[in-house]
């Protein structure tokens, strides 16, 4: 089987860098060549293909429709070539996947599964960086991100992984001392644990149809801290089954009320441009794992404590 005649590969690299970065100047710095060289390579490629790939503007360059189609194909192909060479190079079997992720999800769901993940993807090393405040990933310091929030908040959102129902939790000792709760109206009489100024609790209360507003005197930097305070008996926190499934099963947390409602979702953020084969694999792996464990019925499997 013969390979069809290929375009000049240096010209393809120059085009990819200019398309990815939006200017010949940035592409020249990225590839360590001069700006005129980038322009000559792109012109050569346009002549070879017989189509215009860029519109030139005072601010840089923008892709034509033909350029957009070509970039989508060649950026993926170049990434696959890079991945293939890295895997064959001496020491190249160790590949790093760098993940930014909200802390509670990192500690309570992802990190306990890292060894299983690595066994399923030989040669892959994973670096997890818990971060409660990030909104995007750059493809260099992190290959992908996992956030928890409402739809439309994150421009880099590639897909929704799971949207679990949210419900109150507390420790058995807190419930024994201060409970039981017979209705959600009684929440106003209890110590509620917050990760913000009361916005999340108020969203939950309004979504279940309760005309009640609360605010916080103390807030914690992440859901993981809030849930740790709840486990220690300091009050009632909001949680979802992704974060507290094992704690509910072990009895270190209980549900004082049966009410639950979906609010935010866990979302996968990807940087602009092509992603590696490992990132694409991880996306498939995490979506399948979450959907298998937290089907639409999973949020109803744990009964509340009366």
UniProtKB/TrEMBL annotation:
GO terms for molecular function: DNA-binding transcription factor activity; sequence-specific DNA binding. PROSITE patterns: HTH_LYSR (PS50931). Residues 7-64 form the HTH lysR-type domain. It comes from the Bacteria. SUPFAM superfamilies: Periplasmic binding protein-like II (SSF53850), Winged helix' DNA-binding domain (SSF46785). Keywords: DNA-binding, Transcription, Transcription regulation. GO terms for biological process: DNA-templated transcription; positive regulation of biosynthetic process. This is LysR family transcriptional regulator. Pfam families: HTH_1 (PF00126), LysR_substrate (PF03466). InterPro entries: LysR-type_TF_proteobact-type, LysR_HTH_N, LysR_subst-bd, WH-like_DNA-bd_sf, WH_DNA-bd_sf. Belongs to the LysR transcriptional regulatory family.
